[in-house]
Amino acid sequence: MFNPLGPPLDVLTRTKSQSRPAHRSSKSTPQPLEAASPAARAAIALEYASLRNRSHCPLGLYVVPAADTILIWDAVLFIHQGYYADSILKFKLTFPSNYPERPPTVQFINDVFHPLISSNGTFSLMPQFRAWRPNQHHVFDVLHFIKAAFKRDVLDKIEEADCLNKEAYKLYVLELNSSCGCNNDSR
Protein backbone atom coordinates (compact mmCIF):
# COMPACT_ATOMS: atom_id res chain seq x y z
CA MET A 1 0.00 0.00 0.00
CA PHE A 2 1.27 3.47 -0.89
CA ASN A 3 1.96 5.47 2.27
CA PRO A 4 1.94 9.25 1.66
CA LEU A 5 4.47 9.72 4.43
CA GLY A 6 6.76 6.96 3.22
CA PRO A 7 9.05 4.71 5.24
CA PRO A 8 9.77 5.29 8.93
CA LEU A 9 12.39 7.91 9.73
CA ASP A 10 15.01 5.31 10.78
CA VAL A 11 15.02 3.97 7.21
CA LEU A 12 15.75 7.47 5.91
CA THR A 13 18.68 8.13 8.22
CA ARG A 14 20.64 4.90 7.70
CA THR A 15 24.16 5.30 6.41
CA LYS A 16 25.02 3.87 3.03
CA SER A 17 26.75 0.85 4.56
CA GLN A 18 23.63 0.05 6.60
CA SER A 19 21.10 0.41 3.83
CA ARG A 20 19.75 -2.44 1.81
CA PRO A 21 20.77 -2.54 -1.85
CA ALA A 22 18.19 -0.69 -3.90
CA HIS A 23 16.99 -1.69 -7.36
CA ARG A 24 18.74 0.62 -9.83
CA SER A 25 16.85 1.52 -12.96
CA SER A 26 18.35 2.96 -16.11
CA LYS A 27 16.63 6.27 -15.23
CA SER A 28 18.50 6.50 -11.92
CA THR A 29 19.62 9.98 -10.96
CA PRO A 30 23.38 10.45 -10.69
CA GLN A 31 24.39 10.59 -7.04
CA PRO A 32 26.82 13.47 -6.55
CA LEU A 33 23.94 14.63 -4.35
CA GLU A 34 25.26 12.32 -1.64
CA ALA A 35 27.91 14.97 -0.90
CA ALA A 36 25.34 16.74 1.27
CA SER A 37 26.48 17.53 4.77
CA PRO A 38 25.07 15.66 7.75
CA ALA A 39 23.38 18.93 8.76
CA ALA A 40 21.62 19.15 5.39
CA ARG A 41 20.52 15.52 5.60
CA ALA A 42 19.22 16.07 9.14
CA ALA A 43 17.32 19.20 8.05
CA ILE A 44 15.71 17.29 5.17
CA ALA A 45 14.81 14.36 7.43
CA LEU A 46 13.21 16.76 9.92
CA GLU A 47 11.28 18.47 7.13
CA TYR A 48 10.00 15.09 5.99
CA ALA A 49 9.02 14.11 9.54
CA SER A 50 7.18 17.44 9.92
CA LEU A 51 4.85 16.42 7.08
CA ARG A 52 3.07 14.20 9.59
CA ASN A 53 1.63 17.40 11.05
CA ARG A 54 -1.87 17.63 9.61
CA SER A 55 -1.45 21.18 8.27
CA HIS A 56 1.96 20.62 6.68
CA CYS A 57 1.18 18.23 3.82
CA PRO A 58 -1.60 19.54 1.57
CA LEU A 59 -4.59 17.29 0.98
CA GLY A 60 -4.29 15.33 -2.25
CA LEU A 61 -0.50 15.55 -2.29
CA TYR A 62 1.63 12.52 -1.40
CA VAL A 63 5.39 12.52 -0.89
CA VAL A 64 7.99 9.80 -0.29
CA PRO A 65 11.80 10.00 -0.33
CA ALA A 66 13.60 8.03 -3.04
CA ALA A 67 14.77 4.60 -1.96
CA ASP A 68 18.44 5.43 -2.34
CA THR A 69 18.69 9.04 -1.09
CA ILE A 70 16.78 11.41 1.13
CA LEU A 71 17.83 14.28 -1.15
CA ILE A 72 15.19 13.34 -3.75
CA TRP A 73 11.50 13.04 -2.96
CA ASP A 74 8.91 11.59 -5.33
CA ALA A 75 5.50 13.20 -5.15
CA VAL A 76 2.03 12.89 -6.63
CA LEU A 77 -0.62 15.61 -6.71
CA PHE A 78 -4.29 14.80 -7.35
CA ILE A 79 -6.23 17.81 -8.61
CA HIS A 80 -10.00 17.74 -8.25
CA GLN A 81 -11.15 21.21 -9.32
CA GLY A 82 -10.39 23.99 -11.76
CA TYR A 83 -8.64 23.98 -15.12
CA TYR A 84 -6.55 20.96 -14.18
CA ALA A 85 -9.40 18.93 -12.63
CA ASP A 86 -8.95 15.15 -12.71
CA SER A 87 -5.20 15.49 -13.24
CA ILE A 88 -2.72 13.24 -11.52
CA LEU A 89 0.64 14.99 -11.60
CA LYS A 90 3.94 13.39 -10.66
CA PHE A 91 6.97 15.43 -9.70
CA LYS A 92 10.31 15.25 -7.89
CA LEU A 93 11.76 17.55 -5.29
CA THR A 94 15.55 17.59 -5.35
CA PHE A 95 17.35 19.12 -2.41
CA PRO A 96 20.69 20.89 -2.88
CA SER A 97 23.67 19.72 -0.84
CA ASN A 98 23.55 22.97 1.16
CA TYR A 99 19.86 22.75 2.11
CA PRO A 100 18.25 24.67 3.86
CA GLU A 101 20.36 27.56 2.57
CA ARG A 102 19.00 26.97 -0.96
CA PRO A 103 15.49 25.80 -1.92
CA PRO A 104 14.70 22.43 -3.41
CA THR A 105 14.07 22.24 -7.14
CA VAL A 106 10.79 20.89 -8.45
CA GLN A 107 10.69 18.83 -11.64
CA PHE A 108 7.40 17.53 -13.05
CA ILE A 109 7.52 14.08 -14.61
CA ASN A 110 4.24 14.46 -16.52
CA ASP A 111 3.96 16.89 -19.40
CA VAL A 112 2.04 19.81 -17.92
CA PHE A 113 1.03 22.90 -19.87
CA HIS A 114 1.22 25.53 -17.13
CA PRO A 115 2.72 29.03 -16.98
CA LEU A 116 5.12 28.08 -14.16
CA ILE A 117 6.30 24.80 -15.72
CA SER A 118 8.92 24.77 -18.48
CA SER A 119 8.88 22.34 -21.38
CA ASN A 120 11.38 20.12 -19.52
CA GLY A 121 9.18 20.06 -16.39
CA THR A 122 11.00 22.57 -14.20
CA PHE A 123 8.61 24.40 -11.87
CA SER A 124 9.20 28.07 -10.97
CA LEU A 125 9.01 28.89 -7.27
CA MET A 126 9.65 32.60 -7.97
CA PRO A 127 6.10 33.92 -7.51
CA GLN A 128 6.07 32.65 -3.93
CA PHE A 129 9.74 32.63 -2.94
CA ARG A 130 11.51 35.65 -4.45
CA ALA A 131 14.29 35.20 -1.92
CA TRP A 132 14.54 31.87 -0.12
CA ARG A 133 14.81 32.41 3.63
CA PRO A 134 16.15 29.26 5.35
CA ASN A 135 14.61 30.01 8.75
CA GLN A 136 11.24 31.06 7.37
CA HIS A 137 10.62 28.87 4.32
CA HIS A 138 10.15 25.13 4.57
CA VAL A 139 9.31 22.21 2.30
CA PHE A 140 5.69 22.30 3.40
CA ASP A 141 5.52 25.91 2.13
CA VAL A 142 6.82 24.69 -1.23
CA LEU A 143 4.28 21.85 -1.33
CA HIS A 144 1.40 24.21 -0.51
CA PHE A 145 2.53 26.58 -3.25
CA ILE A 146 2.77 23.75 -5.80
CA LYS A 147 -0.82 22.75 -5.05
CA ALA A 148 -2.02 26.37 -5.03
CA ALA A 149 -0.35 27.06 -8.39
CA PHE A 150 -3.07 24.98 -10.06
CA LYS A 151 -5.87 27.12 -8.59
CA ARG A 152 -7.37 30.11 -10.32
CA ASP A 153 -6.59 32.68 -7.61
CA VAL A 154 -2.84 31.96 -7.91
CA LEU A 155 -2.94 31.66 -11.70
CA ASP A 156 -4.62 35.08 -11.87
CA LYS A 157 -1.75 36.70 -9.93
CA ILE A 158 1.16 35.20 -11.87
CA GLU A 159 3.42 37.78 -13.53
CA GLU A 160 4.79 37.05 -16.98
CA ALA A 161 8.37 37.58 -15.77
CA ASP A 162 7.99 34.61 -13.38
CA CYS A 163 6.70 32.25 -16.07
CA LEU A 164 8.81 29.51 -17.57
CA ASN A 165 6.16 28.78 -20.21
CA LYS A 166 5.26 32.10 -21.85
CA GLU A 167 2.87 30.44 -24.30
CA ALA A 168 0.80 28.93 -21.46
CA TYR A 169 0.80 32.30 -19.71
CA LYS A 170 -0.43 34.14 -22.81
CA LEU A 171 -3.17 31.58 -23.46
CA TYR A 172 -4.28 31.76 -19.83
CA VAL A 173 -4.43 35.58 -19.97
CA LEU A 174 -6.40 35.38 -23.24
CA GLU A 175 -8.85 32.92 -21.65
CA LEU A 176 -9.12 35.09 -18.55
CA ASN A 177 -9.77 38.23 -20.60
CA SER A 178 -12.33 36.53 -22.86
CA SER A 179 -14.20 35.03 -19.90
CA CYS A 180 -14.55 38.39 -18.15
CA GLY A 181 -15.25 40.33 -21.34
CA CYS A 182 -12.04 42.34 -20.92
CA ASN A 183 -10.17 43.46 -23.98
CA ASN A 184 -7.30 45.23 -22.28
CA ASP A 185 -3.92 43.57 -22.15
CA SER A 186 -2.71 45.26 -19.00
CA ARG A 187 -0.84 42.19 -17.75
Would you give an account of this structure?
The chain has five helices and five strands; from the N terminus they run H-H-E-E-E-E-E-H-H-H. The protein has helices at residues 9-12, 38-50, 139-148, 152-157, 166-180, and strands spanning 61-65, 72-79, 87-94, 105-108, 122-123. The longest helix is centred in the C-terminal third of the chain and has 15 residues, at 166-180. The termini are far apart.
Give the SSE layout.
Layout: H1 9-12, H2 38-50, E1 61-65, E2 72-79, E3 87-94, E4 105-108, E5 122-123, H3 139-148, H4 152-157, H5 166-180
Beta percentage is 5-15%
- The CATH C-level class name: Alpha Beta
Rg (CA only): 18 Å
State the CATH superfamily name.
Answer: Ubiquitin Conjugating Enzyme
Overall average pLDDT: 82
Number of H/I helices: 5
In short:
26% of the residues lie in helices and 14% in strands. The protein has a single domain (9-180), classed as Ubiquitin Conjugating Enzyme (Roll).
Which characteristics define this entry?
Ubiquitin Conjugating Enzyme; disordered N terminus; alpha+beta; five-stranded antiparallel sheet; 187 residues
